[in-house]
Amino acid sequence: MTIQSMAGGMTLESLLKDIPSLIKSLRENRETYLTDAVLLGEIPAPTFGEEERVRLALDRFRENGLDNPEIDEFGNASGILPGKVGNSTILVMAHADSVFGPEVRHVLNVGSDSISGPGIADNAIGMAAIVGLPKLLDKLGIQLKDDILLLINTKSLGVANLEGSRGFLETKQRPIRAGICVEGAEQGRLSYSGLGALRGQINLCLPSNYDWNRFGAAGAISHLTRLVSKVMEIPVPKEPKTKMVFGEIHSGSSFNTSPKSGILRFEISSEGDEVVEEMEAQVNELCEQYSLETGLEVKMEVVAKRQNCGIPFTHPLVKTTRSIMSEAGITPAVDPSTGDLNSIILAGHPGVTLGLTQAENLREANESIKLEPLYSGIAQMITLLRAIDQGLCES
Amino acid sequence: MTGNNQKWLEENTFHHGEFWDILKLVEEKEKKGLKISLCIPTLNEEKTIGKEVLILRSELMERYPLIDEFAVIDSGSTDKTLEVASNFGADVYLASDILPEVGDKRGKGENLWKAIHQLKGDIICYVDADISNIHPRFVYGLIAPLIRKDEVQYVKAFYDRPLNYSSGLRSSGGGRVTEILIRPLFSLFYPELTNIVQPLSGEYAARREVLEVIPFPIGYGVETSHLLDLYEKFGLEAFAQTDLDRRVHRNQTTNALGKMSFGILQTFFNRLHAQGKIDQMPNMETFYRRFEVDEGFYNQVIQEVIEEERPPMIDIEGYRNRNQ
Fold first, then answer.
1. Which of A8, A242, A250, B206 has a Cα at 20 to 30 A from A175?
2. How far is CA A47 from CA A70, A115, A290, A338, in A?
3. Does the distance separating the beta carbons of B59 and A112 come in below 8 Å?
4. If pLDDT is split at 50, 70 and 90, which confidence band does A286 have?
5. Residue B103: which domain range?
6. Strand order in the sheet with A67-71
7. Closest residue in A to B50 (Cα–Cα)
């Protein structure tokens, strides 16, 4: 298939018309990105330990002929696919880190219609779509006017506080027309705003002279559960939309020993920055109160915090993305992001996050992706790139 | 260890990292006008075959045209092996359809043997289908010595099998059958072949002209027979071996290994018989040879093991007189 983009001034309708043949070509050329998904995905890359995976991405950037392939001070790999004109730059990025540590056996299984294994959806397949993009565009005969800045960023998840993407965007002095964040799942995801969020960790510790005869004395697990009950009493407003998630709890080592310390991790996200601030203060106060009442050391630590940001629903980038999704047979699901999109928007660039395919058991060792929806997922990404390149997403 | 053995180890033992520049290999291959075929023998391998075909085909045919032909030769799988392999672009053959006039025998060796007829390459590389951590190195690491060194005829893989880290050395041994059966047998009858670190590894590449002049056992003995027959014809100089790092694969039960050993012993004693080593048993070697790896160097460790014997106690005068 050869798609002509260079006959300037293409309309959105003509780009949309190309989508079915694009999906077909992406199905035929799937080896281009599936192989990279497996090779990248089988290298463990926990947050702060992404070096080896990023090095392979960089090798691929070099092999695929990108300009200025490099690893920056934050460990991100980037390279530039030069456009025909090169007056402006479109950023396309995917995070390299995964929730799985090196102790997990990173073996992916490839079936006729699916790939399974730890981290394939989040985010090996997303990375592969970025890494393989130059070869794909070449095979598809698509040449853009803009430069494309490809970024495999590190330190995106958990406590990393978007360090990789923030660092890259703060130091990269390059005017960016728009940014696309690529996630393996879930297809249909459309994020155009970053949610204000706080990730906190409560460290609870029994002092060495803890009085086990005191009224209410208990081990760390009992205390943590009491504390969770108290935190849950904090009212969570419906407007602005707010959510509190208790994501992790760690304590104890055996059946019959009362643990002396424990950790609780949670996230507060809200469309109102002031709500996040208020709830942070309330949790802090609760910890202080609990500490004084029980004689325990209870401290809350903020490990990541970000502000609300976004572009309007009516922004042409969002509008065009919705049209493309619809033509590709994808039902959009608006979902504010707490990920790397925040870095793009806070750096002053319009951006969206897209999901490529359908996944099951996300973030479990038996995580899997479906291949058939993937072709339309990548087609939406390429068509959006073409639309941005054609100036169809400007406000 | 003898000087010849050390020289062979130094000159004919490689690490796949030496051949990372695949583009250069492709240029050398084309300059020599060589055609290379890759064969994966299968029987019910639906879980791993998709990934093997995807990665090897995409990296070594599409990205770098090192392989000219890629075939899966199957023994009659009843699972989705053929469907998956063909889905990812492999040429798929049933062993029973190749050379039907010679009949159909069931076993991996049959597929390897029929591949010589079916495939057109000057070099044929065989890779087992059950490798979970498949990577292009499993192929280019074996083909490269044949492209680079005209005198090499047959290249064998060996792997990092971390069996012993406590001493700071890692055993570079093979699996249980290699260590318990093959290495002692080779130490006794074919001491030079003990230089091959993993004689039973299922991955190897060879030139057509040597593959077409040796018989192929159908079952477990095929790897052993290749070594014995090619050694008899061409000597140790025809061999090379490449360290392919770690290989993750299925673990076999002790029962399965016993069956495998039984098949290998048949092949081994057939060779001893054919080479006149059974009727005129040579003096048995008393040196046991194994390998250790220390900081990237492969050292053959030779230990003298003399199985001295005591006579029946009844023959001892002191015993007979003890109650008198």
1. A8
2. 20, 23, 32, 16
3. no
4. very high
5. 3-320
6. A67-71, A77-81, A147-153, A89-95, A176-183, A351-355, A189-191, A333-334
7. A110
The DSSP line for A282-334 is: HHHHHHHHHHHHH--EEEEEEEEEE--EE--TTSHHHHHHHHHHHHTT---EE
CATH number where B98 lies:
3.90.550.10
Instruction: For an interface test with A, give the residue of B63, B246, B248 to mutate (most A CBs within 10 A).
Output: B63
Sign of CA dihedral B87, A356, A360, A50: positive
Sign of the CA dihedral A100, A105, A106, A112?
negative
Burial class of residue A209 in the structure, from the number of CB atoms within 10 Å of its CB (0-12 exposed, 13-18 middle, 19+ buried): exposed
pLDDT given at position B93: 97
Å between B82 CA and nearest CA of chain A: 11
Which amino acid, one-letter code, is at A130? I
Of B73, B94, B115, the residue nearest B216 (C-alpha): B115
User: Any residues with CB less than 8 A from the CB of A21 and at least 6 apart, and which?
Assistant: A1, A3
Residue A371 has pLDDT above 50, yes or no: yes
> What is the predicted pLDDT for the residue at A124?
98
**Cβ-based neighbour number of residue A8 at 10 Å:** 10
**Mean per-residue pLDDT, A22-50:** 96
Q: Please state, in angstroms and rounded to a whole number, the distance separating the CA atoms of residues A356 and A183.
A: 6
The residue among A235, A254, A228, A61 whose CA lies nearest residue A149 is A61
Alpha-carbon distance of B216 to A385, in angstroms, equals 56
Residues of chain A that touch chain B, judged by Cβ-Cβ distance less than 8 Å: 31-32, 34-35, 38-39, 42, 63, 107-112
Give me the number of domains chain B comprises.
1
Q: Which among A31, A63, A107 is the nearest to B62, CB-wise?
A: A31
**Inter-chain contact A39–B84, Cβ cutoff 8 Å?**
no
Q: What token pair was written down for B180? A: 């318990």
Query: How far is the alpha carbon of A138 from chain B, nearest alpha carbon, in Å?
Result: 13
